[in-house]
Amino acid sequence: MILTKSFDSFGRYCMFLWRSFAVPEKWKVFFRRYMDEMSKLGIDSIPLILIVSLFIGSLCTILIKINISNPLLPRYTVGLTTREIILLEFSSSILCLILSGKIGSNIASEIGTMRVTEQIDALDIMGINSANFLVMPKILGLVTIMPFLVIICMATSLFGGFLICVLTGIVDTGTYIYGIQTMFIEWYVWFALIKSLFFAFIISSISAYYGYTVDGGSIEVGKASTNAVVMSNIMILVVDVVLTKLMLQ
After folding, report:
1. Where in the sequence is the domain holding 156, given as residue range(s)?
2. How many domains, in total, are found in the chain?
3. Is the C-alpha dihedral spanning 74, 79, 80, 82 positive or negative?
4. How far are the Cα atoms of 16, 47, 60, 71 from residue 11, in angstroms, in the given order?
5. pLDDT tens digits for range 53-81
6. Residue 2 lies in a domain
7. Which of 42-53 are b and which e, b meaning 16 or more Cβ less than 10 Å from the residue's Cβ?
8. pTM for this entry
9. Is residue 244 within 8 Å of 108, Cβ to Cβ?
10. How far apart are CA 21 and CA 102, in angstroms?
11. pLDDT(208) > 80
């Protein structure tokens, strides 16, 4: 029963995406909505990213210093390990898990409210492809802006580690910077950016699907927002494991 329901939901999700990625009827309207969604979903998330990244970078540096204070290890290990954690996992996977709560619930609740207030039905009656009109700008907007958010997260997190070194002196700042530069692998940056594209698609498409398929009243909108965030987080973790295995093996 559960398996059958899961396959049914996946089929509806695929059909929903097929409708969403149709050719826009009016490109001018599409590009205007596309730019608005990039601003609303991406640019408006920058303050949250800066705050979270700054403190996570600081915490990583402190915890790594506490746990690898071994005289046999070089002093630059703190900066090197902090860099690897941020590039490989935090700047993409953990960041998108955090953003799924903000962006995913926003998308699901917005589209869900339009569904229960019959605005989507009105678009369909007017002959407009409502899935394409509402959803495609959100998906493409978030996929476009997410790599830039990841780069901001990387820079802010590393700066957070540097700042905690300046304020507390747990590691010499020169040693910390040397650790960041030591044995740098450029592919790790590209790895994080590629993962972020997949995660952005997962967050936007799943959240839009749950909002678009709401059936009921305002209570169902709340449930759809919760389900969208939960499912987005699960799929991010699954895809993270698969991509890590494929791209870093």
Report:
1. 25-247
2. 1
3. positive
4. 9, 37, 41, 57
5. 999 999 988 888 888 777 777 888 888 88
6. no
7. beebeebbbebb
8. 0.91
9. no
10. 24
11. yes
